Amino acid sequence: MKLKVLAAMAFLMLTVAATAQRGPGPRAVPKFEPDPFWPKPLPNRWMMGQVGGTYVDSHDHLWVTTRPRSLDDHDKYAASSKADCGIAPPPILEFDQAGNVVQGWGGPGPAYEWPDLEHGIFVDYKENVWITGNGGKDTNILKFTRNGKFLLQIGHHGKSGGNNDTENLNRPAGIVVYPKTNEVLVADGVQQQSRFARGRGLLRRVRRTRRRAVLPRS
Predict the structure, then answer these.
(1) Which residue has the higher pLDDT, 27 or 176?
(2) Parallel, antiparallel, or unpaired: how do β-strands 183-188 and 150-154 relate?
(3) Cα distances (Å, whole numbers) of residue 33 to 30, 37, 38, 63, 64
(4) Which of 44, 70, 71, 170 stands the most exposed, by the fewest C-beta atoms within 10 Å?
(5) CB-CB neighbours of 103 under 10 Å
(6) Which residues contact 129 (CB under 8 A, 6 or more apart)?
(7) pLDDT tens sequence across 57-109
(8) What is the CB-side half-sphere exposure of residue 169 using CA atoms within 13 A?
């Protein structure tokens, strides 16, 4: 009997102590502070310019769209051997949790039209990387493997027929892939949203501010 009483008293004391630690009322809001040592120094004498977008994938790796063309001439002295640092990195960078650069790739290529102003980025459930651009003539989006192999382009650079255009976008910003239907949802410009899905390649109007395109299987 005494053991039961002692056990009950011990449990009560632990409960009171835990309650006192939490304090009255709701739990405090967690505090976030910037880590000045993250990421680690970039390799290859790279200097990062403007950042267009970021995304954290299923491996807790951070993907960043950089804007190499945003660097001023004096920031790129290393490229002309005038200084020890200042080389523009590739537009797409992947960082691990420790802040190390895992890889970098991207930029103009013969099989696709690279955006003038790198902007949004999204890594889908198949680990494909989607990229948008926000320049005045950026009217397409691009899809790559996580290692930078080109897979798909939707739209044509510098071509837009406005809201009724069934082939091109207009300064697309955010992008999301919905796994259940494999649809790609795009924040197309400021006031319009576009919706893309698998199928035969047909693009049609769904609502006044939405469009739906059917993508080839990939």
Answers:
(1) 176
(2) unpaired
(3) 10, 12, 12, 20, 20
(4) 44
(5) 13
(6) 63, 92, 121, 122, 123, 143, 144, 145, 146, 148
(7) 999 999 999 999 998 877 777 666 666 678 899 999 999 999 999 999 999 99
(8) 35
Q: Could you please state the CATH topology (level 3) that the domain comprising 38-215 is classified under.
A: Neuraminidase (2.120.10)
Q: Break the chain into its structural domains and give their ranges.
A: 38-215
Residues in the chain: 218
pTM comes to 0.76
> Cα 110 vs. chain centroid, distance in angstroms?
24
Which position has the higher pLDDT, 193 or 103? 103
User: Contact at 8 Å (CB) between 180 and 169?
Assistant: no
Are 143 and 155 contacting, i.e. CB atoms less than 8 angstroms apart?
no
Alpha carbon distance 106, 88 (integer Å): 12
Phi–psi pair at 137, nearest 5 degrees: -110, 10
Mean pLDDT of the chain: 80
> What does the pLDDT look like over 29-47, one tens digit per residue?
888 898 989 999 999 989 9
pLDDT of residue 203: 46
Burial of 38 (0-12, 13-18, 19+ CB in 10 A): exposed
Count CA atoms closer than 13 A to 86's CA, side-chain side: 15
